[in-house]
């Protein structure tokens, strides 16, 4: 991205302090995930029954869980799972949604069939679709990504389809076509570059809702295996102790909320920079 | 109107038919032979062959599908492995809880989302609007089960105002049993109310830019009358259409909420059936939910068209 491009995208954040805060929280999450082993004050897996269920104190800022594990260290470690799931779901949605959407818009006959299939998938509420897929594939991190990603593949495909249909009728695209440009050239030169910005917005919303979806799967015991620290798994474990140890409920939940809220704020700020004709295609529902 | 309704109904039917193929395929692609799942590991080869024949699993797959769909239209969704009862009656047992939960949730969503969205739109651009819109985005970023656990902690464990879990039928304990659904419906309403709030606000702002609103203002109609008569009435049309997908989101999220509050509904039934590997029940619930979802969307679309005849089928 050129320097001017960077300034263009940064502007809404400078104008809106709350969006800047969102960007800050996101950056902090990425840093926490990257440097988790060095940032975490304790080993997130270390068990110490002598200090089980201690409330937050100077030694353990977020308290300890039923095995005496340090909640802060586990919360930091879990940022890795959050980023993995989020980026995995976004990648899956883009890798499948972009080609299907673009080709459907450029080849109406193919598009008719493919978009009907997308409609059929959309007849399944997203979490239900995810649960069905987990039953078939079995619970694991990769399968959680696929299961959640499938729900966002459909929305992403529809957005890409809608955008490409509009782009196709732009004067410069028609001019280019009339001068003999091939389909591949049109896609590479005119369609894809124009999809980048709206998809950036879509990606931040998908990333946000993937956090909530993954947390739900973990909470139901159908997401990441229980031995892997994730915010959803921490909440699932805390459930039994909510009256005795409310801090176990508070901190992992706040992490999920902070991450999802920041991504929504960032997506919202970026959306304001979009071409107004594209904006209405991108709702906050992802 | 009639041709629109017919076309729209036909699309729904085709989508449902295609979805039914996926739902049918589900039971065939789950890991392991369904026969072993049904009979367990101790079955003899004779038992296996007998059941395979009885279930028609030795028939060609297309014939199996046709038989299955035939049974489905007669209300026969198969038998639950765990309950040893017809799937339909197992689902029917959970229907009361889920239907009441959904209704109460939609009431909260409407009562919270629409008026606050209206206020945000009328105060458009002020700190109040920014605060309300920000709060809505925050609400949409909170996992429903987390809200649920907090509601249990505060209103059930600490204050003792509402029961923390379960739901005895109102047909046995009377209407007061609805108190069991207050906390779950509030938890479920939170993100959806946020969505409707943002939608009401956005669509009121859209409508307020229309020519007829400007004309109304120019005629000297009182500002609040312009808001209620001209803007709100038309803005609510877009909100009505959103109730369809809100309802869908709600069906999904109810899976988690019913688990948190241990409600004997269809959502918790899915989760428990997954853990019990009771595939016929999972298949049945998915089918029922998809049918309900498509029907609700059909009704919403048709009523939308009735309210606003300008809408054309895309």
TrEMBL record, chain A:
The keyword Transport applies. Residues 79-267 form the ABC transmembrane type-1 domain. GO terms for biological process: transmembrane transport. GO terms for cellular component: plasma membrane. It is found in: Cell membrane. CDD domains: TM_PBP2 (cd06261). It comes from Bradyrhizobium manausense. Its main location: membrane. The keyword Hydrolase does not apply. InterPro entries: BP-dependent_transpt_permease, MetI-like, MetI-like_sf, OppC_N. Gene3D superfamilies: MetI-like (1.10.3720.10). This is Peptide ABC transporter permease. It is a multi-pass membrane protein. The lineage of its organism: Bacteria, Pseudomonadati, Pseudomonadota, Alphaproteobacteria, Hyphomicrobiales. The chain crosses the membrane at residues 20-40, 81-106, 118-138, 144-161, 199-225, 245-267. Belongs to the binding-protein-dependent transport system permease family.
TrEMBL record, chain B:
Its main location: membrane. GO terms for cellular component: plasma membrane. The chain crosses the membrane at residues 12-30, 99-122, 134-161, 181-199, 231-251, 281-300. GO terms for biological process: transmembrane transport. The keyword Transport applies. SUPFAM superfamilies: MetI-like. Keywords: Cell membrane, Membrane, Transmembrane, Transmembrane helix, Transport. It is found in: Cell membrane. Residues 95-300 form the ABC transmembrane type-1 domain. It is a multi-pass membrane protein. It holds the Pfam family BPD_transp_1. Belongs to the binding-protein-dependent transport system permease family. This is Peptide ABC transporter.
């Amino acid at each position: 991205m050129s320097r001017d491009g960077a300034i263009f995208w940064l502007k809404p954040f400078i104008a809106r302090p709350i969006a800047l805060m969102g960007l800050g929280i996101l950056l902090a999450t990425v840093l926490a995930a990257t440097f988790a082993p060095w940032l975490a004050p304790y080993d997130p897996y270390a068990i110490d029954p002598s200090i089980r269920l201690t409330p937050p104190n100077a030694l353990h800022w977020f308290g300890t869980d039923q095995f005496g594990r340090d909640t802060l260290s586990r919360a930091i470690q879990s940022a890795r799972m959050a980023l993995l799931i989020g980026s995995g779901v976004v990648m899956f949605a883009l890798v499948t949604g972009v080609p299907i959407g673009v080709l459907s818009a450029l080849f109406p006959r193919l598009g008719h069939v493919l978009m009907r299939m997308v409609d059929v998938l959309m007849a399944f509420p997203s979490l239900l679709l995810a649960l069905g897929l987990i039953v078939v594939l079995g619970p694991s991190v990769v399968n959680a990504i696929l299961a959640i990603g499938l729900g966002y593949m459909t929305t992403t495909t529809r957005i890409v389809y809608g955008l490409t249909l509009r782009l196709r009728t732009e004067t410069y695209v028609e001019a280019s076509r009339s001068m003999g440009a091939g389909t591949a050239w049109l896609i590479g030169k005119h369609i894809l570059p124009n999809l980048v910005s709206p998809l950036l917005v879509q990606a931040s919303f998908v990333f946000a809702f993937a956090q909530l979806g993954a947390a739900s799967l973990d909470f139901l015991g159908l997401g990441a295996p229980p031995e892997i620290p994730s915010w959803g798994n921490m909440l699932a474990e805390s459930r039994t102790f909510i009256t005795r140890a409310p801090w176990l409920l508070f901190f992992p939940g706040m992490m999920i909320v902070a991450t999802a809220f920041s991504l929504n704020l960032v997506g919202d700020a970026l959306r304001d920079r979009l071409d107004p004709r594209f904006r209405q295609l991108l709702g906050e529902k992802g | 109107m009639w041709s629109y309704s017919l076309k729209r109904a036909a699309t729904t039917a085709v989508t449902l038919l295609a979805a039914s193929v996926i739902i049918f395929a589900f039971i065939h692609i789950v890991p392991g032979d369904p026969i072993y799942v049904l009979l367990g590991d101790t079955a003899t080869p004779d038992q296996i062959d007998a059941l395979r024949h009885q279930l028609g699993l030795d028939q060609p797959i297309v014939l199996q599908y046709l038989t299955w769909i035939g049974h489905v239209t007669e209300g026969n969704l198969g038998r639950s492995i765990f309950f040893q009862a017809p799937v339909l009656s197992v689902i029917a047992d959970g229907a009361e809880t889920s239907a009441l939960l959904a209704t109460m949730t939609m009431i909260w969503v409407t009562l919270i989302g629409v008026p606050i969205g209206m206020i945000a739109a009328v105060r458009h651009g002020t700190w109040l609007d920014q605060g309300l819109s920000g709060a809505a985005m925050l609400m949409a970023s909170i996992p429903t089960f987390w809200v649920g656990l907090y509601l249990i902690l505060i209103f059930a464990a600490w204050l003792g105002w509402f029961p923390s879990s379960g739901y005895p039928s109102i047909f046995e304990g009377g209407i007061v049993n609805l108190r069991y659904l207050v906390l779950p419906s509030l938890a479920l309403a939170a993100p959806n109310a946020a969505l409707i709030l943002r939608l009401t606000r956005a669509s009121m702002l859209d409508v307020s830019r229309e020519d007829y609103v400007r004309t109304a203002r120019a005629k000297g109609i009182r500002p609040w009358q312009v808001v209620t008569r001209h803007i709100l009435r038309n803005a609510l049309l877009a909100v009505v259409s959103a109730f369809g997908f809100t309802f869908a989101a709600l069906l999904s999220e109810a899976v988690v909420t019913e688990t948190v509050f241990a409600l004997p509904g269809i959502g918790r039934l899915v989760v428990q059936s997954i853990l019990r590997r009771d595939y016929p029940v999972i298949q049945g619930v998915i089918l029922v939910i998809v049918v309900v979802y498509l029907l609700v969307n059909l009704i919403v679309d048709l009523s939308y068209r009735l309210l606003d005849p300008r809408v054309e089928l895309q």
